[in-house]
Amino acid sequence: MAALLHPTTEQLQLEDVLAALGHPVRMKIVRALASGEETYCGAIETGAPKSTLTHHWRVLRESGVIRLRHSGRRNYLTLRRDDLEARFPGLLAVVFNSDGERLP
Questions:
Q1: What is the 3-state secondary structure (H, E, C) of the chain?
Q2: Stated pTM of the model
Q3: pLDDT of the residue at 38
Q4: What is the pLDDT of residues 28-51, one digit of tens each?
Q5: Class of the CATH domain delimited by 11-94
């Protein structure tokens, strides 16, 4: 299996991170990873069909929001909290404190 590409901290772009966080399913994934612990992807309840989760993981990984690691037939996800905080201080605090309401 080919190695997955993860952008370096310096390569993280605010536009990409915000676009990745702009989808409700991806926000659920990020909030589920808030502890910073590596989590088996099947343990995250999103309500989305399994067939679309691969797409959401790819968007989050390619934007630099999560790190994805394969181990056998399982995928493990980790929020890149330290990298995001170093590049965009305070962004995750806003994400985790948001109540999910959309502005008109």
A1: CCCCCCCCHHHCCHHHHHHHHCCHHHHHHHHHCCCCCCEEHHHCCCCCCHHHHHHHHHHHHHHCCEEEEEECCEEEEEECHHHHHHHCCCHHHHHHHCCCCCCC
A2: 0.87
A3: 95
A4: 999 999 988 999 988 998 888 888
A5: mainly alpha
